[in-house]
Structures are given as C-alpha cells and as structure tokens.
Specification:
citrate synthase (unknown stereospecificity), mainly alpha, Citrate Synthase, domain 1, Multidrug-efflux Transporter Regulator, Chain: A, Domain 2, 416 residues, 6 strands
Length: 416
C-alpha cells in the first residue's frame, strides 16, 4: 500500500488518484456507504472525504490480495485497529473532538480541554471542590515525597481505588466525577500538596516554579499559559502505547484507577514518557558555545547514542506539538539568556540531525524555561496524558468490546 498523505480530508480528485478509479466510482462508494462525504465549505459546493475511509478501502484491497499482511503491521504504526472519535491526526496539526489543538493551547485551559475529551463540557465535573487526601494517604505521601513523581502516582493510585466505594460504578456522571478527581489527585501527588483550590496549572506552578529568578514582564501570566499549553498538547495522541494499553485494560471493565495505573506503567518506559526526561538532561548539557555544543552532539552520535526529542514517524513535516511549545517559549521569554541558549542548542540539533523536534523536546524546553525541578517534565506529560487515557477508557466502556487480538504462531510445531 502506498498512501502517505496525512491531510485529514481529501478532495474527490485526490481520492480517485489514490484509489486508481474514476470520479464516478467515488460517488458509487459513497452511495454504498464505503466512503463518507461532507461539504468542503467551498463556493463550488465540492465535497471532501475522510482520509481514514480511503485508507480502509486500501486496506481491504490489500487484505484481499495479500491475506494476513495488513494484520501483521497494524500494531506498529500501521492501519487503524479500532474506531475512535477522540483525536484526529493531521499533517500539520491535530484535533480533539474536531477542535484544533494548537488553538486550544493558546485559548483553553487544561480542565476545559479534559472536559472536551470526556464530552463533559455541559456538566463540567471540575466545578466540584478539590478532593482532599485522607490522613492515611498523607502519611504514605509524606513517606515517598522524595521519590520520582511517577513513583508517587503509581504507589498511591491503588490506594485511591481502595478508598473509593464507587470505583466500579459505570454511569457517566460518576465516571466524569471520578476522572476529575483522579486528575486532581495526581496533581497533588506531583506537587506534594495535600489539598488545593486553584486550577491544576496554578497548583503545579506554585509548587514547582522558581518565579523569582525570571525578569520577564507579565511573568506569571506567561508561565501559566505555557504550562496550560504543555498539559493540553500532552493530553492525547490517538493510539500511542500508553493509550492503547489503557484501552486494553478498560476493555476488561477494570476501574478508571487501574486504567490510569496501566497508562503510567507504559509511560515509564524509555521509548515513551522517559524520552522527555532524556531530552531535559541533554538540554542541561548545553553551555552556549556553538562549537563545543556541536562537538558534544557529534560525540554522542559517534558513540551510537540517540538524540532524544527529534523525529516523529507520524509527522513528515515535524511534530506540531513540539513546534508550538518551542514557538511559545520563544515568544514569552525573548530576553531570557538561558532560554536563548537552549533554543540555539535545539536549532543545532535540528540542523545536525536534519529532523524536527517532537513534543519531548518541547516539554524539555518548557521545563528549562520555567526552571522546573527534576521530574516535572514527565509529570506534565503524565498528568496531561491521563486526561486522554480517561477519555479512551470511557469510549472503550461504551463500546462494550473486549480487546483480544490473535497472534500468528511461528514456534516449533507439536511432535506427533
């Protein structure tokens, strides 16, 4: 199958070219329900077609010609393996429930975005007061407060489930209330606070940030906006490894707490969430001398090390999330000497690798610009992505399906 276009919608002419058929055949596909058409918003009343539908047609064609091949590649950036209405990946942006995420990063707050992902904008579960950690929970948190943020969350999530008598309730109102509580509890675990009354970003920033070191105008407003954007852009990215893990667990009808615990386990791997921490560590090694910084990067490449935070297989023109965060940091901190040093270092990486920064590089830059403590970068990613895991869990619960793929056996055959 040769189909690399990443635009979410295609014109009839583009669809006909990709499928190798006449325009009239496209119309026939629509009438048979194989393709969905909608108004393109143009004066000529032309229609547009969903890329996913076209890919499905190609998939069926290839499966008929080469049975089993498409199933083999589906679990590794291959064709879609299930349906979802949460996130649409485009070539230069992405969309949550049809809303441009890059626009949300500038105008929305994290709680509003979470409610959008959960289809809970009208009931808005964050109107309720913050949950308060129980005395027993506080005792546990105090004992592990020096551990990494992911460890704190993974240790305390099962405890929260044990304390919640409604953990397995399946009605939508309870789901969304539980989901908002989980996000806020994770925020408290990450901040070390026992309670809060502000937003999630305000709570994290008041615990993490060293505002006194910055001399930028409108500093607090800029810092909060940047942290909101980082959380929003981290919230979901379709079926990445942690979100797919979360869906698999949800398909067994485990509780939302266990769904989040599973997501955190997947996020902890060096090929997923830990890439953010690796990118932060690399930025910390920049000293501002272009020649020395270039030598540092070249030595890493010569020794076989990977440069974290660059190159995303789904974005040929660069990860829009990483690009957005880097642009916002540049805009908010134009006179910060340290930030300019980091930006220069990132540019050197981009030129050396001939590739684009990902969200991991963007989160690393945000962490350095806000002067956040060690572990805060993956903390942002974890709290942000939890909103997406919870959305996937709710969607999976509603489907009622158990995710149970088959494996093709290639081992030794039984001896007769």
């Amino acid at each position: 199958m040769s189909f690399s276009l990443k635009k979410p919608f295609l014109s009839a002419e583009e669809v006909a070219t990709v499928l190798g058929v006449e325009i009239q055949t496209i119309y026939a596909y629509v009438s048979r329900g194989l393709l969905h058409s909608e108004s393109g918003g143009n004066k000529d009343r032309s229609k547009r077609y969903r890329r996913e539908d076209v890919e499905q047609l190609l998939l069926r064609r290839e499966e008929r010609s080469q049975p089993g091949k498409t199933a083999k590649t589906a679990l590794s950036l291959g064709q879609p393996v299930l349906e979802s209405s949460i996130t649409l990946l485009g070539e230069e942006t992405l969309f949550y429930r049809g809303k441009n995420v890059l626009h949300l990063a500038e105008t929305s707050n994290f709680e509003e975005t979470a409610a959008l992902l959960w289809e809970a904008e009208e009931v808005f579960p964050f109107r309720q007061e913050w949950p308060v950690i129980s005395q027993e929970g506080i005792e546990i948190l105090n004992r592990i407060v020096d551990r990494p943020i992911l460890d704190r969350c993974r240790i305390l999530i099962p405890f929260l489930e044990y304390e919640d008598p409604k953990a397995f309730r399946k009605d939508s109102k309870t789901f969304r209330k539980t989901a908002s509580n989980i996000l806020r509890y994770l925020t408290l675990f990450a901040s070390g606070f026992h309670s809060s009354s502000g937003s999630i970003s305000e709570t994290l920033l008041s615990s993490w940030s060293e505002t006194k070191k910055s001399k930028e105008p409108n500093d607090l407003t800029s810092r909060l906006r940047l942290l909101e954007a980082a959380l929003i852009l981290s919230a979901d990215h379709e079926l990445n490894v942690s979100s797919f893990t979360a869906r698999c667990v949800a398909s067994s009808e485990a509780s939302l707490y266990q769904v989040v615990l599973a997501g955190l386990a997947a996020l902890s791997g060096p090929k997923h969430g830990q890439l953010t921490e690796k990118a932060i560590l690399l930025l910390s090694q920049a000293n501002g001398n272009k020649k020395k910084d270039k030598q540092l990067l070249e030595e890493k490449l010569r020794s076989g090390e990977n440069i974290p935070g660059f190159g995303h297989p789904l974005y040929k023109k660069g990860d829009p999330r990483g690009r957005k965060l880097i642009e916002m940091v540049s805009r908010f901190f134009p006179n910060d000497a340290d930030v300019q040093l980091y930006l220069q270092f990132l540019k050197q990486m981009e030129e050396l690798l001939e590739d684009y920064p990902t969200i991991d590089a963007g989160l690393a830059l945000v962490s350095k610009a806000l002067r956040l403590p060690k572990g805060a970068g993956i903390g942002i990613f974890a709290i942000g992505r939890t909103a997406g895991w919870l959305a996937h869990a709710m969607e999976q619960y509603d489907s009622g399906n158990l995710i149970r793929p088959r494996a093709k056996y290639i081992g030794n055959l039984p001896q007769e």
